[in-house]
Amino acid sequence: MAKKYQKLSFIYYLWILIFIIAPILLLFYQSFFDIYGNFTFDNYIAYFSNKNYIIMTLNSFLTAFLITAFTLLWAYPFSYFLSKAKHKDLILLLVILPTWINLVLKAYAFIGLFNKNGAIAGFLGLASEGILFTNPAFILVASYVELPFMILPIFRSIDSIPKEYVIASEDLGASKFQTFRRIILPLSMDGVLSGVQAVFIPSLSLFLITRIIGGNKIITLGTAVEQHYLVTQNWGMGSTIGLVLIVMMFLVISFLNKKGGDYEK
Q1: Residue 263 pLDDT class (50, 70, 90 cuts)
Q2: CA 107 to chain centre
Q3: Any idea where this protein resides (predicted)?
Q4: Which residues have a Cβ under 8 Å from the Cβ of 182 and sit 6 or more positions away?
Q5: Which of 43, 127, 193, 244 is the most core-located residue (most Cβ within 10 A)?
Q6: Predicted local distance difference test score (pLDDT) of residue 130
Q7: CA-CA distances (angstroms) from residue 69 to 62, 72, 83?
């Protein structure tokens, strides 16, 4: 049976070649051409020497960190209590349901909530100006969009912890806090790292939410790629920034995988 299915694995490798390796190679090739189609290294020189690109890179990392931290702050307690809930499958379905709605529709729905006539602005006492096109609004919407991808792996890791471990800890005289700190938290770190990876990586390259909710006040590498491809038509510079994003994502994935291996040890 194993040999039979190994013959079908070429479909998997073909998919990787066409949809992952080939686009990255095309980006790499395009990054060596300027807006006039001339071969040049100026795109890389401009990226690493221009202060604006350095600021955009730091801003992208800061934004991704804040979104990840905010979602983790909400997701872990929710996942912990969800693992103890009676109707956990139904609640989990309600968590997943928003991911079925188009991102653009969700973003435009928040415009109505965040503008000066919106319900949230009125609730916060900001009806005169609203909170649309501000950093808190952008972080809040991005965190809402990414939240299910943080909850799912954490919930699965907590829910899969054998109840016998918790019972044995309590029988040995440990308090609930000690049981959580020494049993539940360490055994759920794989889920936490998976959730951080699932949220941090996409948050590095956000551009749609930054445009709709953040306006032009929030500039990240994702919006820079969009600008170079759709506005300035400088595909070489856009490809260079895209490659830098891909390299940073691989570095983050490697770091988190290494941390996951350390926790397993």
Answers
A1: low
A2: 16
A3: Cell membrane
A4: 169, 174
A5: 43
A6: 67
A7: 10, 5, 21
* Identity of residue 191: G
Q: pLDDT confidence of 124, banded at 50, 70, 90?
A: low
Region 247-254: mean pLDDT is: 89
pLDDT level of residue 48 (50, 70, 90 thresholds): very high
What is the end-to-end Cα distance of the chain in Å, rounded?
34
Q: Tell whether the model's pLDDT for residue 7 goes beyond 80.
A: no
Q: CA–CA separation, 260 vs 253, rounded Å?
A: 10
How long is the chain? Answer: 265
